[in-house]
Amino acid sequence: MKLAHTMLRTGSPEEMIKFYKNAFGFELREKKEMDTFTLYFLRHPGQTAELELTYNHGKDEKYEKGEGFGHIAIHTDSDQSLQDAYKKAVEAGGEDYRPPDECPGDYAFVKDPEGYEVEILARSASQ
Fold this sequence. Notes:
About 15% of the residues lie in helices and about 35% in strands. The protein is an alpha/beta fold. The protein has a single domain (about 5-60, about 70-120), classed as 2,3-Dihydroxybiphenyl 1,2-Dioxygenase, domain 1 (Roll). The chain has a 4-stranded mixed β-sheet with strand order 1-4-3-2, covered by helices on one side. The two termini are about 20 Å apart.
């Protein structure tokens, strides 16, 4: 078995798609228009796991964050430093949340435009 996707509800799908594209290189793979909601499936090239963004028609504000959801984790590119990846995510519209120098390992956290935490993991040479 392997991870299929992580789903986030969003009130601003265009902003979220732009953030994940500009910060992490995700591409919109599929858009499914339904009667009361729209699904957007994003994927990083070369991977199968996806980020599913769900927009419930008419719900244009941010959702309250549930206590059970933690975060999405994304590896840096093999030729990218953790600091560069963090900076790129902040410049793409992410919230400067827990930069690399505040974390006790090879990781950092930004928040996406809806406030969800995204962990950026430094890719080791063996990954």
